[in-house]
Design a protein that fits this description.
By secondary structure, this protein is of the alpha+beta class. Helix content is about 55%, strand content about 10%.
Length: about 200
């Protein structure tokens, strides 16, 4: 990639001998003309692709196996082609789309049963994997993880229920424990929902 970038840089304009993109300054106008919405949308697309790849890795699903990405009505379709190419997915509505926000259908609309769900921003996504994995094994793994998280949550709750700890610890330490509590509860909830989906 650096070599391709240098070649493009050299071909855009005549360059002085020894001039390279490796030591070129970024012009101030670049920062003034940045479209933050484009950057945010692209970052969301990257996060979606990362989630799908992580699902493949955790479920031992081959990158060659075409999956379906189910999206809700808040999904920005501008980067669908990139998502489809880099994650090897078809894209379909997670729920029936509302009027005026039709999403192109490219795959099974099997609902969330047997699907792995995730959030990017405020948008919900799901990848049905029920027919590609051993449901019993996955349920056992998730139940073991719930047990581990519940043990961790118990220790956090013990700290937060200790009035001396809450009164004497630094506010940022207490806040960090509360964040751990909320994050762990959220993970347990998501795991239980995934188990329910696999049992359907």
């Amino acid at each position: 990639m650096p070599f391709i970038t240098e070649e493009i840089y050299q071909s855009l304009f005549p360059r002085n001998e020894g001039e390279s993109i490796m030591n070129a300054e970024i012009r101030q106008q670049f920062f003034e003309n940045v479209d933050n919405k484009v950057l945010d949308d692209f970052e969301a697309a990257k996060e979606i692709i990362t989630h799908i790849r992580n699902i493949r890795a955790s479920k031992n699903i081959s990158p060659k196996e075409r999956l379906t990405l189910q999206v809700n009505n808040g999904h920005n379709a501008d980067y669908n082609e990139i998502i489809k190419k880099l994650a090897n997915v078809g894209i379909a509505p997670l729920n029936p789309p509302s009027e005026g926000k039709q999403v192109p259908v490219e795959g099974d609309l099997g609902g969330k049963a047997g699907a792995v769900s995730f959030m990017v921003g405020i948008c919900e996504y799901a990848v049905p994997v029920g027919n590609l994995i051993n449901a019993d094994e996955e349920i056992k793994k998730m139940e073991a993880e719930i047990t581990r998280l519940e043990g961790f949550l118990k220790s956090v709750n013990t700290k937060l229920s200790n009035e001396k700890f809450v009164a004497n610890a630094k506010p940022e330490v207490v806040e960090n424990e509360r964040k751990k509590q909320a994050d762990t509860e959220s993970k347990i909830k998501a795991l239980r929902e995934s188990i329910d989906g696999l049992k359907k």
